[in-house]
Write a structure and sequence with these properties.
The chain is mainly beta. It has one domain. The protein is built from 4 helices and 16 strands. The protein has a 6-stranded antiparallel sheet with strand order 1-2-3-12-11-13, with helices on one face. Strands 4-16-5-14-15 form a 5-stranded antiparallel sheet, covered by helices on one side. It starts with 6 loop residues before the first helix and ends with a strand.
């Protein structure tokens, strides 16, 4: 990531005695934050990368390899480069066929998995009509999913990470891994979050709550070496992919992004 254009502003902040913002604006409505985790992992750099997306300026899109039998899975970078995106992250975990989401997933014109699982959260976007937020996470524990879900063309079901009151919902466990997750802040902005260093998911949620993100909703996307986030916007390119996963890949040695069947992409809205 090239940061040379930020140096004059950082120098001025140092002179004035102010704390520099953790956010770098890549484009209007698109900000990148790089945070040192308050509690370090014993593996990797312990950095947490967050792409903050304003749905008024950028559309979320769901892309599926299953929508076209001629398509294979692609890395997040490849999805961005071939689909006119500025960013891409895992849409959700996938089944052993390496194509199908483990829970409900659909978009206009294509259903990847028609089955609804017991998972509580649904990332919803591509709004039908003008009512309600352009992108949201519906939590069936505190929202009327039967009423809200039909207002959106794209629905991605997955595991919720925060209770309706904002508390950590994940039980502690000894297993740990790299993370890719998707959240919403208090202003309705979408947060694409990635950490290569491993923590238990319980501890990772607590780390995110300690950061200045104003988290309101949070949905699990993927863990381990598959967890990916690619960003190319302005003069910044960021290619982050996971590594460590207990019982599967217990090292920080993964040196490549894995091909993904389903991604959430970020596409600029013509202004």
């Amino acid at each position: 990531m090239r940061l040379h254009r930020l140096l004059p502003g950082l120098f001025l902040l140092l002179i004035l005695g102010a704390s520099p913002s953790p956010w770098t604006q890549l484009q209007p409505g698109l900000d990148l934050g790089v945070f040192a985790a308050p509690t370090r992992s014993d593996v990797g750099d312990s950095n947490i990368h967050v792409l903050r997306v304003d749905p008024a300026r950028f559309d979320l899109v769901l892309l599926n390899a299953s929508a076209d039998p001629t398509l294979g899975n692609r890395t997040a970078r490849h999805w961005v480069e071939t689909e006119g995106l500025v960013a891409a992250i895992n849409a959700s975990m996938y089944a052993e066929d390496h194509r199908t989401s483990v829970a409900h997933m659909e978009r206009s014109g294509h259903v990847n998995n028609a089955r609804w699982s017991a998972d509580n959260d649904v990332l919803a976007f591509d709004r039908i009509g003008a009512d309600g937020p352009k992108a949201t996470i519906i939590d069936k524990r505190c929202d009327d999913r039967a009423t809200l879900a039909p207002r959106y063309r794209t629905l991605i079901q997955s595991i919720r990470m925060l209770r309706c009151d904002g508390a950590n919902v994940w039980s502690q466990q000894p297993r740990r891994w790299s993370h890719a997750v998707i959240g919403l802040d208090g202003q309705g902005r979408v947060l694409l979050i990635h950490a290569r260093s491993p923590w238990s998911t319980h501890d990772f949620i607590d780390l995110l709550l300690a950061l200045p993100l104003d988290l309101k909703r949070l949905q699990y996307a993927e863990g381990g070496p598959e967890a990916s986030l690619f960003v190319r916007a302005g003069d910044v390119e960021l290619d982050r992919f996971g590594s460590y996963e207990t019982g599967f890949f217990e090292s920080d040695d993964n040196d490549r992004a894995w091909p993904l069947p389903n991604v959430v992409g970020v596409r600029p809205i013509p202004q």
